[in-house]
Amino acid sequence: MKKKTYPTEVLDVTIKRITPEGYGYVKHIHPPERGSNGRGLTINVTNVVPGDVVRVTIPNAKGRRKAVVEYDELLQPGPTRNLDIPTHEAVSGGTPLQYMKYAAQLEYKMDMVKTYLQEKDFDISVVKPIIGMDEPNRYRNKMELTFGPNGELGMHQQGNFRRVIDLEDSILAPQIMVDVKHTISKWQKDYDLPGYEKTTQEGLLRNLLMRYSFATDELMIILYVTEGPGKYQAAADDLVTRLTTQFKNLVSLQWVEHASSAERIQADETFILHGRDYINDELNGFKYRIWPDTFFQANPIQAEKLVELALEMADVNEDMRVLDLFCGVGTFSLPLAKNSKDLAGIEIVENSIISARRNAEDNGLANTFFMTRDARQGLIDLKEAWGHPDLLVLDPPRSGAGGKVMRSIGRFGTDKVVYISCSPKSLADDLTWLRDFGYELITVQPVDQFPHTTHVETILLMQKVKG
Ligand SMILES: C[S@@+](CC[C@H](N)C(=O)[O-])C[C@H]1O[C@@H](n2cnc3c(N)ncnc32)[C@H](O)[C@@H]1O
């Protein structure tokens, strides 16, 4: 039977709150005088703040439960709207909170941390006020842009992975990256190089990755393309000339072939067009070499604060053995190692472990032991390979460590556990496991690692209650 469709409706709605995904939430009940079917419609609106009154167009309004829409018109700005940000088309996607005043963003993130902890019956009186940024714009040391099929180069529209919004400017990117973007867009146009079209899998240019170190001033530019420079050699040579002339601090320019249809950036073959294949960076006075695929904290100003907080909460001394679980390239490992007897790091990505070992060596730290393992297996193998830690630090991915790993940590029974998290939801779930092993929350410090996004970082200390 053919499904009935209903007319498109234009509605004026008031945004109630912002969801954890960054959408403005509205619950609309179709009024009886307009033939209500009694059902509610959840409308998720992009680029809004609470209290905004906006006009939205909803196709098949009464036939659906949920709609994700851009607003047609801002009828009245909400009290926390930052009116200095002009329109939502002129700036890039990926920043759903950018229209909210920064103080309100911080409040929103504080609430999120408290709500998730409270849901699991944790004492939220130990949650300290969130640490924000003095200057919350242009903080990222890495930006990844996508080439669209019509000459766009920018970020995907929120909730729409088919549409790329050409990046004119970005509240997240340092000016140098915005300049690189414009130079590359001009070069693309001059040589008439096609952007990659996902549906037909045709076109040349896929992604642009930029890394910039605020500490060393070194710049890396990577182009991900569907084939090697071969028949584009003249264009590639000219790109080198343009970029090295404009950016004297360009130390790495790479043309990376990624031919398969897989969306996740990958390297089939790498052609170094200029310089070397990595850049040097620094954090908390430690040196790091960063390759294109190296995970490295994206906001160095806030990352340094996180590391300082970890050192403060861990309170290590030269008699202590420390385990850094999910250690990456050693952002927390190196400063912890410097202040302790021994440090072990466990991490699943082989390249990160190779990098962590090299970083330890570059920084003259001989008391480190790094192991490539899945966290759960690593905790089992560590006992034999290295021994038992006095303190455990963990910084898992967004999905959290999970019950099995948390139970293993509980069985390790170190007095203290320092947990760094980028998802308050998975954090609260994980902590319940430690509570079952007799740990209690001592202090919780949210840190705004990613202004203008809905992400919030939290670092906390749990301690085993002595029986
Ligand atoms: C949020 S990052 C933290 C990295 C590091 N602490 C830092 O600050 O640079 C999480 C890390 O966990 C690693 N990882 C993800 N799943 C893992 C697993 N099952 N076992 C071990 N490590 C894993 C990722 O590769 C990533 O390096």
Give a short synopsis of this structure.
25% of the residues lie in helices and 29% in strands. With 467 residues, it is α/β, with parallel strands linked by helices.
Task: Please tell me what the overall shape is.
Answer: globular
Number of domains: 3
Radius of gyration: 24 Å
Poorly predicted regions are none
- What is the spatial order of strands in the main beta sheet? 10-9-8-11-12-13-14
Q: Superfamily at the CATH H level of the largest domain?
A: Vaccinia Virus protein VP39
Q: Which architecture of the largest domain per CATH?
A: 3-Layer(aba) Sandwich
Range of strand content:
25-35%
Could you characterize the architecture of this molecule?
This protein has 467 residues and is of the alpha/beta class. It has 3 domains: 9-81, OB fold (Dihydrolipoamide Acetyltransferase, E2P); 106-134 and 293-464, Vaccinia Virus protein VP39 (Rossmann fold); 142-283, OB fold (Dihydrolipoamide Acetyltransferase, E2P) (Beta Barrel), CATH 2.40.50.1070. Helix content is 25%, strand content 29%. The strands form 5 sheets. It has a 7-stranded mixed sheet with strand order 10-9-8-11-12-13-14, with helices on one face. The chain has a 7-stranded mixed sheet with strand order 19-18-17-20-21-23-22, with helices on both faces. A 4-stranded mixed sheet has the order 2-3-4-6, with no helix packed on it. The longest helix has 18 residues, at 102-119. S-adenosylmethionine is lined by residues 295, 297, 326-329, 331-332, 347-349, 352, 374-375, 395-397, 422. S-adenosyl-L-methionine binds at residues 297, 326, 347, 395. Keywords: Methyltransferase, S-adenosyl-L-methionine, Transferase. Belongs to the class I-like SAM-binding methyltransferase superfamily. RNA M5U methyltransferase family.
